[in-house]
């Protein structure tokens, strides 16, 4: 891992910018395939790799612990968080269904031509990538994150965007542990969302985002060994319309 720059701290006269750099460096390492779930994290080793003192490393690990990316045990130090359980996965899907259709609806009402063109560029970039190795999938996962984040940004609701940003980190970690071959389906679903936003159709944008999340969840549920009966995705799509519509009312009242 490359060391971080000390110039920002010196210019600011305090360690906060450096702490942010260390946090971002550790986050990048955690969402790469290089570190396995449950791996032990040694503060002194990280400090040497980053060419910083242990203090900003501890601060960064504290933030990562709050976000659920690392866990700390008494007298055992930090470890990378274990793989997501089936229950945690379902909770993540439920939260995404409550929030992402909301921002898609608002993005269709708020995004301008320039923002939509940038969103199309992201979709094209994902479509043109060659999924030939693990590193390419890492790039695809980053582009997928950027696509969803651009929609959240386009909604103008920064509270929801910040909440989703924390969720997306866990989504990326899960995907990197369960790389699949369903890229074409995801790309088609992304384009359907984008087309609805381009048309300025909030209802369709909300519906297509909800459909994408449900379809994606169905694909990734195959990663679990749980053989319990799974609900038909089309039934879930219908049921979650109520959840999303309630979320719209709540979110719009905050903007």
From TrEMBL:
The protein's matches in InterPro entries, at most eight in alphabetical order, are given as: GntR_C, TF_FadR/GntR_C, Tscrpt_reg_HTH_GntR, WH-like_DNA-bd_sf, WH_DNA-bd_sf
The residue ranges of the HTH gntR-type domain are 16-83
Keyword set includes tRNA processing: no
Q: Keywords assigned by UniProt?
A: DNA-binding, Transcription, Transcription regulation
A GO molecular function term, named singly, is: DNA binding
Q: Which domain of life is it from?
A: Bacteria
Instruction: From the Swiss-Prot or TrEMBL record, give the protein name.
Output: Transcriptional regulator
Q: Which organism is it from?
A: Pseudarthrobacter phenanthrenivorans (strain DSM 18606 / JCM 16027 / LMG 23796 / Sphe3) (Arthrobacter phenanthrenivorans)
């Amino acid at each position: 891992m490359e060391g971080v720059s000390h110039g920002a701290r010196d210019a600011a006269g305090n360690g906060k910018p450096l702490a942010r750099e260390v946090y971002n460096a550790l986050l990048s390492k955690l969402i790469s395939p290089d570190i396995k779930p449950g791996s032990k994290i040694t503060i002194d080793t990280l400090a040497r790799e980053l060419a910083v003192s242990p203090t900003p490393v501890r601060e960064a690990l504290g933030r990562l612990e709050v976000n659920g990316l690392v866990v700390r045990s008494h007298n055992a130090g930090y470890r990378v968080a274990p793989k997501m359980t089936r229950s945690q996965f379902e909770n993540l899907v439920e939260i995404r269904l409550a929030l992402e259709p909301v921002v898609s609806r608002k993005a269709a009402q708020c995004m301008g031509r320039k923002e939509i063109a940038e969103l199309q560029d992201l979709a094209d970039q994902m479509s043109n990538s060659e999924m030939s190795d693990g590193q390419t999938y890492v790039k695809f996962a980053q582009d997928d994150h950027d696509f969803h984040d651009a929609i959240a940004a386009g909604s103008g609701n920064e509270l929801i965007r910040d909440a989703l940003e924390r969720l997306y980190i866990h989504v990326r970690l899960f995907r990197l542990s369960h790389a699949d071959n369903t890229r074409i389906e995801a790309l088609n679903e992304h384009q359907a969302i984008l087309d609805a936003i381009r048309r300025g159709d909030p209802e369709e944008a909300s519906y297509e985002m909800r459909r994408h999340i449900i379809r994606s969840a169905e694909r990734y549920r195959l990663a679990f060994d749980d053989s319990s009966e799974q609900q038909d995705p089309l039934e879930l799509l219908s049921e979650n319309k109520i959840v999303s519509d309630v979320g719209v009312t709540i979110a719009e009242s905050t903007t």
